[in-house]
Amino acid sequence: MDAPKVSSTKVANAEAGDTKTPRTERGRRTLRKLLDVAAIEFGEKGFHEASVSSITRRAGVALGTFYTYFDTKDALFRALVNDMSDNVKSSARSALDDDMNALETERAALHAFLEFARDHKEIYRIIDEAEFVDPASYRAHYEGIAQRIEMRLKSGAEAGEFRQDLGEVEAWALMGMNVFIGLRYAVWGDAKSDLEDVAARANRLLSEGIAT
Amino acid sequence: MDAPKVSSTKVANAEAGDTKTPRTERGRRTLRKLLDVAAIEFGEKGFHEASVSSITRRAGVALGTFYTYFDTKDALFRALVNDMSDNVKSSARSALDDDMNALETERAALHAFLEFARDHKEIYRIIDEAEFVDPASYRAHYEGIAQRIEMRLKSGAEAGEFRQDLGEVEAWALMGMNVFIGLRYAVWGDAKSDLEDVAARANRLLSEGIAT
């Protein structure tokens, strides 16, 4: 799967808080470029070693241009974590289809996430480093995903496909499964890892458990 | 649950690699003290802000004493990650009983881990920071846990309690469930989080899945 296309609306979302919103299409493209390059720079070097001057050099923009969008390296990192959260969300959504039942939805969402993580391995390092650099964004990232999973579990229960008593515990359990399967097979796995099969096995665990 | 008692054998294990093994009981106690104080220091300040001089001050030992055990702050951090891996392992093991069936074993292991993490919240921050400070230990920590879970799944299958086709994917899924439930309820939860109930819900997901 290709990276989900990122619209200018999404770029605007990514900026929540401390990014200065660009007014022109050209400005939005520059902001997008800065976020994409920042993902590579932070992914390779980590937050502390990454530098604004290296990011602007890689993006081919002047140092002054950077500061029309972000006040600090911290502000860029925060915007990047929000942007990645948003991209994880839309990569899962874009794989879903109204015809899918609740279980198929979970399988497709996991498979899309695994493909996304394989194509953007840096996402783990960046989200994980947020625990130290920007704890509020780290927590918001996982709480947001858990809330979306919990809503899917509830609608699966309303449709009569899932147990009626599912809630926050099961949502966090499911998120943890997906995150660690992604770490093992999408980030640490080799190119031959069969992500479709991995998602199907996780889905079977979800559907029927492991007991005989 | 109290912290598992840490024997001098375990201290010796924690040192794998680059700790100098103490020859006397007094030396082993000093090493244990340094590891305990390091957990607090690294947990509070993170690796980069933590300092050897602050650790020795907190432990009430001379700076020179530190260097009879560790060459560097990095070596101490590595020893601490190994020690924590070991403590997670023994906290789960000490909760298990030969009479338990395979499912009860998983519930008890998770419950013991949740209690351990509530009493040692710093463990998440330290293991997570190892991803950046000492990636090999980070990976070894999770691969070791996944291998132990996979062995338990296989013996549950041999006993006829678990499905025959369980393997690495299910082991990583189960580990991820446990880690994220621990983050939500043991580390971020309040003192009133009912960890026994949380472990029971996760165990039901494991036993029968979420589908109707």
From TrEMBL, chains A, B:
Keywords: DNA-binding
Region (Disordered): 1-26
Compositionally biased spans, kind Basic and acidic residues: 17-26
Chain segments annotated as transmembrane: none
Pfam family, one: TetR_N
Residue stretches making up the HTH tetR-type domain: 28-88
Listed InterPro entries: DNA-bd_HTH_TetR-type_CS, Homeodomain-like_sf, HTH-type_Tx_Regulator, HTH_TetR, Tet_transcr_reg_TetR-rel_C_sf
GO molecular function, one term: DNA binding
Record PANTHER family: ACREF/ENVCD OPERON REPRESSOR-RELATED (PTHR43479), ACREF_ENVCD OPERON REPRESSOR-RELATED (PTHR43479:SF11)
Name this protein carries in UniProt: TetR family transcriptional regulator
Organism of origin: Erythrobacter longus
